[in-house]
Design brief:
The chain is of the alpha+beta class and 225 residues long. The protein is built from 4 helices and 14 strands. Strands 6-5-4-3-14 form a 5-stranded antiparallel sheet, covered by helices on one side. Strands 9, 10, 11, 12 and 13 form a 5-stranded antiparallel sheet that branches. The chain is globular.
């Protein structure tokens, strides 16, 4: 009888171990499938918004990035177009997208320069955009009836931004006003001694400033429109 009980408990123990091993393997595979990949100062989920096979190991050219973004935007109608591309040193490309009919900024994107994967820029683009919500991660949601009256006009926003960079970065920095008005905020170019070096955003309701500190060193600004 004792041996029989030992056999039963042995079978139960082996079964429990098998279940535990199986669960551990499933948990590991699940974690891998939802893994967040960190790329320099940006981030994206694996497989987000397309991408391409790039066996060369070299960065994609701005023309290739432009083609990938334009192809992505085609999935959201025919009223969006690329406005600017910021090329950073070994960091994600920044792409501003505007509406064709109004010329107003719509969304801001980051693009992995090696894979072409596209994802929403963090910060104002995700938190302040009153018309194109990108909080869902892999796509944006258009809010057709979004209406509001800005409390801060463009001239006031430029003054706020210029005061901010001079106080925080130094007197050699300035915000002359180049950039785009999005729905809910402005994004302006920051210059140092007359050369564009980065960007910041100003909330058009509160005047709050959000400095884009996740980019690398700026190499080139390409204006498409």
């Amino acid at each position: 009888m004792k041996n029989k009980h030992q056999l039963v408990w042995g079978v139960i123990l082996l079964g429990a171990i098998a279940i535990l091993i199986g669960y551990s393997i499933w948990l590991f595979m699940f974690a891998k499938s939802t893994e967040t990949v960190v790329y320099n100062q940006g981030y994206y989920n694996s497989g987000m918004m397309g991408g391409r096979v790039n066996s060369s190991g070299e960065q994609l050219t701005p023309d290739q990035i432009l083609a990938d973004v334009e192809n992505y935007l085609e999935g959201y109608g025919n009223n969006l177009q690329v406005a600017d591309i910021f090329v950073f040193t070994d960091a994600d490309y920044y792409v501003s997208v505007e509406e064709k009919d109004t010329g107003r900024g719509a969304i801001e994107l980051l693009v992995n320069p090696y894979t072409g994967q596209i994802y929403p820029e963090p910060g104002p683009n995700m938190m302040w955009n009153e018309k194109y919500s990108m909080m869902m991660g892999d796509s944006f949601r258009y809010i057709a009836n979004a209406t509001y009256t800005p409390n801060v006009n463009r001239t006031e926003a430029v003054k706020i931004a210029d005061d901010f960079v001079k106080s925080q970065l130094g007197e050699t920095f300035s915000v002359p006003g180049d950039g785009h008005a999005f729905y809910g905020y402005y994004t302006f170019h920051i210059e140092e001694d007359g050369k564009v070096i980065g960007m910041l955003s100003v909330n058009d309701l509160t005047g709050e400033v959000w400095y884009h500190d996740w980019h690398g060193d700026l190499e080139q600004v390409i204006s498409e429109h």
